[in-house]
Structure formats: structure tokens, C-alpha cells
Amino acid sequence: MYKLVLHVKHFKKGNLSKLENHNSRRYLHDNNKNIRPELSKNNIQFIDHKGTLTQDVKARTNQRSNNKRAIRSDANLISEIVVGADDKYFQTLTDQKKIDFGRTATKLIQERYGKENVLRSYLHLDEVDDNGIQHPGLHVDLVPMTKNGKLSSDALWDRKELFDFHTYMAKGLQANGFQLERGEEYSRTKHLDPNVYKATMAKFVKNTNDKSLELNCAVKEIEKYKKSLESWKINLDDREDNINFREDGADEEEQALTEREMKDTAREKEQADERRRLDERTHNLVIFAESLKEKDKKLKEKEHYIKLGKEKEKKDKAKRLKQERERQEQEGDGLVF
Question: What is the rounded distance in angstroms from the CA atom of residue 123 to the CA atom of residue 225?
Fold first, then answer.
């Protein structure tokens, strides 16, 4: 729920004309720079009057029950109640609801302090700040008259009355459909003079703008750094992809190498088996060759013996033939013809 804002300020006789000129926008040379003269026609006046504020105050004070007593020259003749709310609250209201808000608040103040004492009520709708946000405010001017007819702002506005009045207004507005709650009870918050407030706010806005400028510069630097980081990240991603690609290639090469090693191992095993078989065949061939040599040797020996036998047989045969011829020759020599 939004907060109700109330402020009470007192004015002496010498300030009444200035107060009326400000509230009625009679003159445009006002220190409030948020006033938009072209919008002043939208302001609402809830109480009709014929005379000036000074004249109406004089007429009312002359009606008091103890009017024989002179009014002090420094007496507060007007208590102005400024009724407002959070700026965001008024942004939720239509123009008609804003007018209803001012009329309801005026009626509540009249009921509490007497309709005869409430002399002016203006709803200002022409105050707009540099951001285009409207700041409506109700200004109600009443003569600070107590119930026993005493003119005294101190007697009327003691601390208890200020507290009770705040609660009274919050409940009254809520009862009429305006969702506003009173501010913090017994708050030590003090109201500033409007000019002091605006000067303070202007300084605050300037400092805020300066800080916003610094913040914008910082944001730009951060954005620039962010872009650098993004570029760096893209570069890292590319490098990572390249590394992953190379790792994949390395894995493939490693797998191919492993397969080659396995094939080489199988080939080496086959070659070893082949060498073993060759060695076995070589060994068998050597043994076979040696057996052939041995057999050849035996054959040669056999051939030699056969040759020797044939030569002997031939010699023996030749010897026998020779002996036979010799014998025949001997026998022939003994024959007589």
C-alpha cells in the first residue's frame, strides 16, 4: 500500500498575499521550476471565495468568540496543510480520481477543523518534474482556531493532534476508496522547506547524474571487456575445437598405430613361425644332405669295389685266356703232320 504524505506549515500576515499568489498561480514568477504554466488551467479550486485571503482571514478572526483580545502582530494566521502521496500512487489514478482525492481530503479537513475555518483548497496538477512525472498536491489553508475560539497554531497543532490528524486522514481516505496508509508512527523525519528540498534534490540529481555517467562509462568498459572476453572465449573455443580435432586425429592415429602394431606383431609372429619352419626344414635338409653324402660315399665305395672286382675279373680272365693260348700253343707245337 502507498504512503500518505501530510505537511503543515504556518504563515503570518505578511506572507498571506504571497501564499495566495502561489496557490492560485496568479503570478508566474514563482521559484518552483516544476510548475508548467500551460498546465495551470487544470488546477482545481474546491472552495469559492470573493475576497482576498487577507480579507477572508480578517473576517474570520473578527468572528471569534474572544475577538475583543487583540491579535499579536507575529501570530500565525494561516495553517496550510499539504496533502499528497507517493508519486507512483498518483500515476495509478485517473484525472477524475485525482480530483475526487482532493475533494475528499478537503471535506475531511473541513469536518475536523470546521468548515468556517477552511478558507482555501487548491489541487495543483501543473507540477511536472524534468522526467515528465506529475506531482499532484492539495493545499488547504485554514485559520488555526481552536474549538473554544482561540486563535493559536500552537494550541491547535500540538504533537498529539499532528499524530491523530495523520491517522484520521489515512482512515478517512481509505474509507472513501483511496488505498493509502499513514507514514511511520512517531517518526523523527522532518519536512524541508520546498526550496531547500528542491535545491537538495537538484544536488542529489546532479550527483546521481554524475554517478550515472561514471556508471555508464564503467558499463561501457565492462561491455568492452565483455566483448573482449567473448572474443577471447570464441578464440579459446576455436582452439579447443582444434585441440579436440587434433586429439581425435591423434586418437585415430593412435588407433591406426595400434592396429599397425598389432598387424606388425601378427606379422612378426608369422615371420617367426615361418623362420622356425624354415629352420626346421633347413635342419631336415642338412640331415637329408648328410644322409645323401653318406649314401653317395657308400655308393662310391661300392662302385670302387665293383670296379676293382671287374678289373680283377678282367685281369683274371685275361690271364686265363693267356694261359689258355699258351697251353694251346704248347699243345700245337707237339703235333706232327
Answer: 52
User: What's the pLDDT tens digit per position in 26-41?
Assistant: 876 556 788 888 998 9
List residues bridging with 4 in a β-sheet.
85
In whole angstroms, give the CA distance from residue 1 to residue 178. 10
The DSSP H or E segment spanning 66 is none
DSSP for 240-300, written as a single string: HHHHHHHHHHHHHHHHHHHHHHHHHHHHHHHHHHHHHHHHHHHHHHHHHHHHHHHHHHHHH
Rounded distance between C-alpha atoms, residue 141 and residue 127, angstroms: 19
**Could you tell me the pTM of the whole model?**
0.58
- CA-nearest of 13, 37, 23 to 139 is 23
Coil, helix or strand for 198? helix
Percent of the chain with pLDDT over 70: 86
Radius of gyration of the chain (CA): 67
Residue 51's DSSP bridge partners are none
Report how far residue 153's alpha carbon sits from residue 298's, in angstroms, rounded to the nearest whole number: 161
Integer distance in angstroms from the first to the last C-alpha of the chain? 190
Q: What are 295's three cell numbers?
A: 649314401
pLDDT tens-digit series, residues 251-276: 777 777 778 888 888 888 888 888 88
Whole-number pLDDT of residue 105: 97
Task: Please check the confidence at residue 337 and state whether its pLDDT lies above 50.
Answer: no
Listed residue (133, 205, 192) closest to 5, CA to CA: 192
Residue 94 has pLDDT above 90, yes or no: yes
How far apart (Å, rounded) are the C-alpha atoms in residues 229 and 237?
Answer: 12
Q: Is 78 helix (H, G, I), strand (E, B) or coil?
A: strand
Mean pLDDT of the residues in the chain = 84
CB of 144 closer than 8 Å to CB of 162: no
pLDDT of 323:
86
pLDDT at residue 25 in the model = 87
* Sign of the alpha-carbon dihedral angle for 43, 49, 51, 57: negative
Domain layout of the chain by residue ranges = 2-190
CATH topology of domain 2-190: BirA Bifunctional Protein; domain 2 (3.30.930)
> CA-CA distance, 237 to 243, in Å (whole number)?
10
